[in-house]
Amino acid sequence: MRRLALGLALLLIAGAVSAEQFKATKSPAKPPAASANPAKKTATKKAAPKGPPAKMLFGVITAPAPLAARAIGSYAKGCLAGGVSLPINGPDWQVMRLSRNRNWGHPRLLDYLERLASDAKALDGWPGLLVGDMSQPRGGPMITGHTSHQVGLDADIWLTAMPDRILTPQEREDIIAVSMLKDPFTVDPAVFTLQHVELIKRAASYPQVARIFVHPAIKKALCEQAGKNRGWLGKVRPWWGHFYHFHTRLSCPPGVAGCANQKPPSGDDGCGGELSNWYKMLRKAEINAARPAKPGAKPPPRKAPMSLRDLPQECTAVLNSGDGAPTIAEDGTVPAALKLEASKDAGPPAPHLDAEGLEALKAELSGKKPATAAASATSESVPLPDRKPH
């Protein structure tokens, strides 16, 4: 019996030892804790700082890049080498908002503006152009006002005619352009005349023009007044905010590498389905604008500003050429740029419906009753007076 008990004890001890040995050989097969998830290490690495927004860098430079003239990149993501300034006074134009220093462009743009001003005066009786924002000396993103205008091929032209005298620098800062609208959906025929139709038609008629942007109500008036010659209408497209000026955009100069053209017009005059869709968006925007903000509601997230790394690589050389590189403070800001953020708008606030018009619009959209003329895109044409602008 004692032998049997001793044998059982030995067997139990041997089994326990074997179990411990099994555990010991199995545990090292597990990966070490430090290297269990190497992806986490790379995820925790800090991204390289982007530096100040590109609009701060390009917005403070006061002189052009001393390089050959070249539009680089796309209209909303690019820069300008060898920019040229449009003289602030010409025989049939004047530049507005001189403090912005945005009367720069590719030579192709300056040739176009001077030709348009001359032809509009000589052939159409337009008194002269008031030229708004073109581009900055080296193009690039702007601190205020625009997403495009970055490559020196865009310009805003006021629909307010030039006066018959030279404006003072202070007047060019203070004068507010005249709105062409009676309400959010209709031009004011007392202000927007056939002379304006002829000016926009003239501006779109040159082959180097890629687009003309106007408010949808102005596009509608152009569609109604264009007559039989409608080929130019395809270049004129609706866009938000263009109710006191039109925005002209040229195509890239021929043979220039690295300049991205906009897609050519489809051939449609834009007076059908596209215009109807814009009026749907206008109605929706008008109702949304009238809604009171919900208490405690968070503002919609803002898109991060473009950095220098987001632009074509050549734009870094454009920015730093000559004496161009701006001064950057230790906190990463560009001191000179902060002064430019409070620039005065060129035009008046966009018009909105009064309470009665808003209720009529809501009723129209709900199908309860016909809308008033102010709340809808009327199907009948609004005759425009054929008179000389003020």
Uncertain parts: 1-36, 371-380
Query: What do we call the CATH topology of the largest domain?
Result: Muramoyl-pentapeptide Carboxypeptidase, domain 2
Could you describe the largest sheet, including whether it forms a barrel?
A: 4 strands, mixed
**What global shape is seen?**
globular
* Spatial order of strands in the largest sheet: 8-13-11-12
Number of strands: 13
Which class of secondary structure composition applies to the elements? Answer: alpha+beta
List the total number of helices. 11
Q: In percent, how helical is the residue content?
A: 25-40%
Beta-strand residue percentage? 5-15%
Description of the molecule:
The chain is an alpha+beta fold. Helix content is 32%, strand content 12%. Mean pLDDT is 83; it is low at 1-36 and 371-380. The protein folds into two domains: 61-285 and 307-348, Muramoyl-pentapeptide Carboxypeptidase, domain 2 (2-Layer Sandwich); 353-379, no CATH class. α4 (107-124) runs antiparallel to α6 and α7 runs antiparallel to α8. It is built from eleven helices and 13 strands. It has a four-stranded mixed β-sheet with strand order 8-13-11-12. Strands 4-5-7 form a three-stranded mixed β-sheet, with no helix packed on it. It has a two-stranded antiparallel sheet with strand order 1-2. β9 and β10 (186-187) form a beta hairpin. The protein is globular.
